[in-house]
Structures are given as structure tokens and as C-alpha cells.
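User: Now give one protein:

AI:
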Amino acid sequence: MKYGYFNDETKEYVITNPKTPTKWINYVGNLKFGGFVDQTGGSLICKGDPALNRIVKYLPQLPNYEFNGETTYIRVKENDSYTIFSPYFVPTLDKYDLYECRVGLGYSKYVSEIHGIRTEVTVFVPDNEPRLIRDITVTNLRKTHVELDIIPVVEYTHFDALKQFTNADWVPQTMQSRLVEENDGLKVLTQYAFMNRDTRINYFTSNYPVSSFESDRKLFLGENEFGTWAKPQSLLKDELSNYESHRGDNIAALMHHLGELAPGEQKRIITQLGQGSNISEEKAAIQKYRNEKNVDDAFNNLASFWETYLSKLQVETPDEQMNTLLNIHNPRQCYITKNWSRDLSLYQLGFGGRGIGFRDSSQDVLGVIPNYPEDARELIEKLLHTQKRDGSAMHQFFASTMEANEGDSRERPDRPDYYGDDHLWIVQSVCSYVKETGNTDFLNKVIPFYDKDTSGNTIESGTVLEHIRRSVEFTKNDTGAHGLPLLGFADWNDTINLPTGAESFINAHLYGKALQELIELMTFMGDKESADTYETWYAEMKEVVNNVGWDGEWYIRYFDYNGEPLGSHKNEHGQIYVNGQTWATIAGFATEDRAKTALDSVYRILNTKNGIKLSAPGFNGFDPDKGGITTYPPGAKENGGIFLHTNPWAMIAETIVGNGDRAFEYYSQVNPVYKNDKIDEYEIEPYVYPQNILGDEHPQFGLGRNSWLSGTSSWMYQAGTKYILGIMAAYDGLIINPCIPKEWDGFKATKYFRNATYEIEVRNKNHINKGVKSISVDGEVIQGNKAPIFNDGQVHKVIVEME
């Protein structure tokens, strides 16, 4: 069954059936103010920290048909009675003549037709404004006049989202609502609660006269009369109660009488949900967004931002699904994931949990550097603030306070208190930014390390370059019995928590990749001594990996504290791990023959029609020595599931060995656009990547979960653009080195790089996977596969002939 379609012209996914298998969402605003809205109009909105400044009550665990956070009711008066429905399907669950939820770039637009009334609602957050706009237009499609009322409703939560579930007495006693009267019938209904002696005020208002209001959920629903969100008893009366709640379950419901609409007549109501410290200080901004022109301008500004953001790279390949993904939805998801990290989604609820992960965001930022480099740089700087003097890093931090912690390792005092991989990812982030922008001055910026003295003062600072040097130095000095980097509490695979003394091959490979980056950077900067040192370190680790890591047909993944391998043919479960093979290739540690053999083993053992499994066979029962991986059934998540984050690494590795057909096969089988025709199996949104899909050892093989905030988005964007299409920034030019399917005749791309636009045409007349015969720039043939830096604001034509 289809639930919608892609509209590339409007850059939207259009949901046509609100009864999606699970909630499908879209993000509005950002971590300063925003959240997500779902396919039936529900919302989860916060300001700043999603755990400590939640505004709207939204429970993802509720069924699709339940009210969640926000809705709007439309009331038609006919024959002295009321017909009540919602333009969002939920909560009234009526049968619609037309229903659309247009999932756009930073907005969702709902279009519905029922009972002869057409409603269009656009939901978005204006740039740098702490308010959610719902721009509602109703049209009378009937041939007769109709009398309409519109009643938008918000259900509030306490600012401390977790307290709502842990203290059912204290929280209701602190939540209160008050009405602020204004001229011409305009009203602001405020709600506030005390949070650590800090009063914050939420408010709900509109640009239209309000005849009455309600602030108490019990009164609105008529719970004593068994009223429900589907049929609130208060809406059967002419007016709401005008009760200012002094405690309890606070809501904001505003009654708007639109009067009679003639056939074809439209009326427009604009609501605002916002937060401020003092309502009198908010009045000017509230008044601004009651003006239709200002709302239109704000929405147009949002469109302009996305137009600029996406224009930095546009592609035209023979595969339309790839074009849809790379031109619109993948870079959009990269930006959202960079903004929100793992802080707020249907799956990460922000209840004092993840915040911003050092490892996560170091990778997320790679996906936005080509499109929005200075925004990416700001995040890189925040990450470096949480790196320690010894070169390791705090595992996660909270953007609102910059307080960091060591993550899940706190819960296991018998395991090391650091993650062995965190600090290595940032090397790639810093180098990628400098390659894209040419801003080598950034390397000289001084940033404090996280360590503090007993008074909370910074102990030491270092330049950005010093930070990334210390990243590799920490791993150089943190090795185990085989000479491999120690695991720490965990590496990228959080769920394998081996006792102290375990060694990790992916930490070795990441160390190798970081050294490659530093060798390239030092060579570019003319620091031969440092480059030579890093070359020596690289050669030493490459030798160790190949001496102790090769298992015959693939590379081992770990040595445990007793020196026993995991990820070996010797193991009953977890015999092979995809990361051990892909990263050995990406880091250049695998010889050509071993790389091809290891990648063939991945294809033979781990690949499925729905993507590459993380490992196989799955564990079947808890093993305390292995840790969290054994808590999942076989085929789920890290235990033999299709953990999508790893799939682009396989694509990248295949392009390195020149196998463009297999790289594109891997790309296509996890492209969510292709899932649009089998949603009943896949279930989640087809316009974003999930974190995981259940593997073939699980009875629900093909089921996706944990969409949106996944490192998959960044790496898939890189795999598609930098490695398959081969368009990659370098310190001294723009590399164009495609590795594409043989059947392609070529492709086109437009890339903005260093204040110039490169119009690229790749021609593959001989139908090969990889190999550049010649490149001409503006009609002149150049040596190699690297177009020069122009920095002239002009358009340059680049022709690439493959051979």
C-alpha cells in the first residue's frame, strides 16, 4: 500500500493517507526553539534543552489515532447543532474527501477537505523566533453559506519533561494559566510553571478575536461526562468556560467564531505558540506575527534558506531515486541531524539522556560541511571544548550548559571510563572543514580543553591543530597486549563492552585514517618532520593490524581481555563484522588482495536485499562478558541487524577497490526512496534514513526504526557524493574521481566550491566503473583529476572523460 509520493518540484513528500504504519514526522525550527510535527498535526515543541524546557506534551508511545500535543477543531453549525471535525484527521478520525500532509523543508502543510470545507494549515518556526506558527486558511466549498468556528488546542507539559511522569502531585500543583486581554477581542492565554525558581511563560494566541477560552483539560473534554479528544463535550456548547486554571492538566483552547462564509469565501487565522520570560516583553513580537504579510515573509525566508543550502550541490544521474535523495532529502536530513544530534525524536526523547554525542556529532558535521561550512565549524568548536588534555574526549555534552559526561561508562565502574574511538573522529571533521573552505587560520584558533581545576577553571588550552594532534597521540600511547588500541568502555559499537584490557580493530583503523588525514595536512602545510613522524606511526600500526588481524578471509574485530578474538571463524556467534573489513580498506591498512577478499566476504555473508548486516551470526542469549549486544534477539540492532550507519562505509570501501557496481547496489538497496512501494514491511518514513532495519535472522526482516537522527544520513551523503560520484574537496583543488555503475553513460553535477561554481559533466563512453582519462576546465585539459581553485565568483565548465 502506498501512503504518499515524492514531489521533487516542490521538494516535498506528500502523505496522502494519514493512517501510516507508525508516526511519520518532520522537523520545524531548531534546538533554540522547535521540535517536530507528525503526519496528523501533533507536535512536540521545546526551547533549548528538550529535557528541561519542554512546552508541549507528546507521548510517542501512544497509538497513531490518539491526540498528541496539538490539534485544531472546526465546528460547523447546522440546524441548531454542531458538526465537529479536525483538519488533521486525528483526533476525530473522520473519512476525508482529500487529505494531504506535505512534508516540506522546515515546514509541514496539511490540506484536507471534508463536509464541504477545505482547510490548509502551514506549520513552521520563523528564523530565530521562539514561536511556532500555524497558518490556517479555511474555504467554503459548498454552494450555500456556512457558519464556522475554529478552535485550536495545545496541551502543555511541565518544563521538566521527566517530572511529568515521576511526580504526579507536585507537577500539576505548579502549572497555572492566565488570560491576558488585549484590544479588539484579541487574547493571549499564558501558561507557566516554576522550574528551579525560574518562571518561564508559555503562551498561545492568534490574529483573530477570541470569544472564549479553556485552560483545563478536564473541563475541555468533559471527563465527568466521558468526553474524549475525539468528541470534547465543551464543543457541544456555544462557548468555552473561560476558566483560568490554578493547577492540573493545563491546555490552551481558543474559540474563534468566523461567522458565515459565502460559497468560495476564505478566512485566515494565524496562531502562535511561544515562550518568553515576561509576556509584556513578547507583545511586540506577537503583534508582528499577527500580520499576514510578516508571516508570509518569514515563510519565504525559510524557503530562501533551503534554496541556498541545497544549491551548493545538485546532481543529475541516470537514477531518479538517487537524484531525489541527493538533491533534497539526504542533505536536509544531514542538517536536521547536525542540529539535533540525538536529543529529540520519536526514539530519543531528551529526558536527561544523550545530549550531543562527541562521536555522533563529529560524524554528523561531515554531512553539512559542503553546504553550510561555517555553521559546521561552530559545532566543531563546541566538540573540541569537550576534549580532554590527554587527547581523549568526554562522550557527550549538553549544548545549553556545555556540561559533559562519560556516557554509559558511568553505569559500569568495572569497565574503563572512556570510549576508545570518540576523539579520533574529530580529526576527519577538522580536516574536512579546512579542505572545503581553505580556512587554515582555523587550525590556529585556541580552544580550552575540558579539564577543570577544583574551582572550575580551565587548566589548559590548545590550538585546533594541537587538539587533533593529541587525538592521535592518546591512541598511540593507549595500546594493549597485541599493540592494538585498547577498546575503552566501547568503540563505535556501543553495545560490545568487554572487560578492561580488550583491544579494538576499528580503533586501530580510525587511528590509521586520522594519521592519513594528518599526513596530508602536514604535507600541505610544509611540516615534513611531523608528516614523517605520522608516516612512521601509520606504518607501525599497519604492520600490527596485518600481523595479528587477518583471519583468512576477513579481519578480526576485537581481542578480548584474555587475548581471544571476536569476529573470527573461531567464534560460534559474531564470526564476522562489517566494520572490520570496510575500515581496514578505508584506512589503507588492507593490502589490495586482502581488501577485495574481505569485502567479498561481506557481500557473501552479510549482505541482504535490505542492506548489509552489522555482524553474523547473531548471539542468542545474554552474555555478560560481551555486554549489550547480547540483549537483542538475533537480527535486531547491533546483534546481526542491518545497522545502516555501517552500510555507506561498505560503499566507500568498494569505490576504493574500484567496484562501482557493487557500491551502487549497496546504495540502492538502502535508499529509502525505493522503500516507498513496500511501506507495509518497512513502516517508517521513506524520505529519511533510519538507524536500523531488522535483519534476516529476525521474523520481521525489513522493518525499519529510529529514523531521522542517525549518523547514516551524513555517511550516505558522503558515500553518494564524494565516493560514488567522486566529487571531493581537497586542500588545493576539487577532486573528481567517480566510481559508478558500468551501465551509466555518465552524470552531471553542479558544485559550489571556494567562491566558484563548477558545472561538471562526467562522460563514461567506455562503460567502466572507475578511471579518469582526462579533465578539461573551461576548454583546457589539465593534469590529474583535480580541478583548480578559482575563488572568482564565476561559473566554470568541467568535462571529465572516464577510461
